[in-house]
Amino acid sequence: DTGVSQDPRHKITKRGQNVTFRCDPISEHNRLYWYRQTLGQGPEFLTYFQNEAQLEKSRLLSDRFSAERPKGSFSTLEIQRTEQGDSAMYLCASSDSEAFFGQGTRLTVV
Amino acid sequence: RKEVEQDPGPFNVPEGATVAFNCTYSNSASQSFFWYRQDCRKEPKLLMSVYSSGNEDGRFTAQLNRASQYISLLIRDSKLSDSATYLCVVQPGAGNNRKLIWGLGTSLAVNP
């Protein structure tokens, strides 16, 4: 499979725990995006990488969120001290021109 | 004004109908435009890019109007399987700043 892959597909965690998600983009794509989506809403931008450089981070993100793309390939998104409001689908996309999405990680904070 | 705006709908149409969606954008220097389709609880999938000259893919036609800063998507002969949310995406930057800006989506329900 040469598409964007995300791991895990589902994550249930207790409030206050830390979680980390991984995204493997399409190999020749140098741009990588993280989005968050809740039911009935469009994707909400979180952050964006060009190769290993994090070019932009949404002001909506608190300091509890951090993302890395250390070698310009895969990326990780970490959420510290999760809150119930963090429950959402976390989508990763990579692009050369058009963007292609992974299937997402559905996070439920209980 | 939001950067990208869409009528959320829902649009309820019978099978075989023709339906059109518009999407307006605020940045006149925007470079690239796309339509994505998203099924319930699935990830968005690219439907088509939108070129300045307009483009057609089967029953789907996309057009760009730079003067009025909107893009459109026309679906002819609607099928039940076209029921989904259609998301408009604009890429305002060039070079290294090529962040995607998403609309909130237009919901389409095609009824038998």
Q: What this model shows, in words?
A:
The complex is a heterodimer of chains A (110) and B (112). Chain A is mainly beta. Chain A contains no helices and 11 strands. In chain A, a hairpin with a 6-residue loop joins strand 7 and strand 8. Chain B contains no helices and 11 strands. In chain B, strands 2, 4, 5, 9, 10 and 11 form a 6-stranded mixed β-sheet that branches. Chain B has a 5-stranded antiparallel β-sheet with strand order 1-3-8-7-6, with no helix packed on it. The model of chain B has no long low-confidence stretch (mean pLDDT 91). Chains A and B meet through strand 4, strand 5, strand 9 and strand 10 of A and strand 5 and strand 10 of B.
Radius of gyration of chain B: 14 Å
Q: How many helical stretches of chain B?
A: 0
- Biggest interface pair, counts: A-B, 23 and 21 residues
Given the C-alpha coordinates, what overall shape of chain B results? Answer: globular
What's the end-to-end separation of chain B, in Å?
37 Å
Largest sheet of chain B: 6 strands, mixed
The portion of residues assigned to helices of chain B is under 10%
Biggest pleated sheet of chain A: 7 strands, mixed
Mean pLDDT of chain B: 91
Q: Report strand % of chain B.
A: over 45%
Low-confidence stretches of chain A: none
Overall radius of gyration of chain A: 13 Å
Can you tell me the overall shape of chain A?
globular
Span of the ends, CA to CA of chain A: 33 Å
- Strand portion of chain A, in percent? over 45%
**Helix/strand structural class of chain A:** mainly beta
Quaternary state, please?
A: heterodimer
